[in-house]
Amino acid sequence: MPAPYSYRRDPSIPPFDDAAPIAVMDAACALCSWGARMIHRMDRSGTVRICPVQSPLGAALLRHYGLRAEDPESWLFLDAGVAHADAEAVIHAARRFGGPGRAAVLLLALPRPLRGWLYRRVARNRYALFGRGDMCALPDPAFQERLMR
Fold first, then answer.
1. Which of these, 81, 110, 127, 133, could form a disulfide with 33 (CB 3.0-4.6 Å)?
2. What are the pLDDT tens digits along the chain (149 aa)?
3. By the 8 A CB rule, do 113 and 61 touch?
4. pTM score, two decimals?
């Protein structure tokens, strides 16, 4: 991954407030929508924001990190300007949130190549396995405040 805050020097990325962590996720995926709700529930600080990949900012951030915005197989977690992707993003976020989310660190028992393979396998089949959802339509006003559009 590029150096921390490398996106600040990328003219294709719209300016945004990066003072708090940001999860860039597929808003049309039911699994990602569930993940966004878990972030909302477990982030006791209330600071982590969620950016749909379908937004101009989300798409630009994915492209900056070499990920496909048009058919994302990954989600991105930016924390202190450092990008974490795929299973590593899940593990990093789980460590940050603590509580029941810490169970995701069990993924560390798997070798990194196997973690990556497993993550990509689920990601490529996420619509078939979990269906579609609309994260942006969730009615919770506190959740809606976290969304970056």
1. 133
2. 789 999 999 999 999 999 999 999 998 888 888 889 889 988 988 899 999 999 999 999 999 999 988 777 788 999 999 999 988 998 888 888 877 777 887 888 899 999 999 988 998 888 888 888 877 776 788 888 898 98
3. no
4. 0.89
**Direct distance between the N- and C-terminal alpha carbons of the chain, in angstroms, rounded to an integer:** 25
Distance CA 49, CA 21 (A): 6
Task: Please state the domain extents for the chain.
Answer: 6-137
Tokens of 135: 């994260």
Pull the structure tokens for residue 121.
């396998």
* Cα distances (Å, whole numbers) of residue 80 to 4, 21, 40, 84: 7, 7, 19, 11
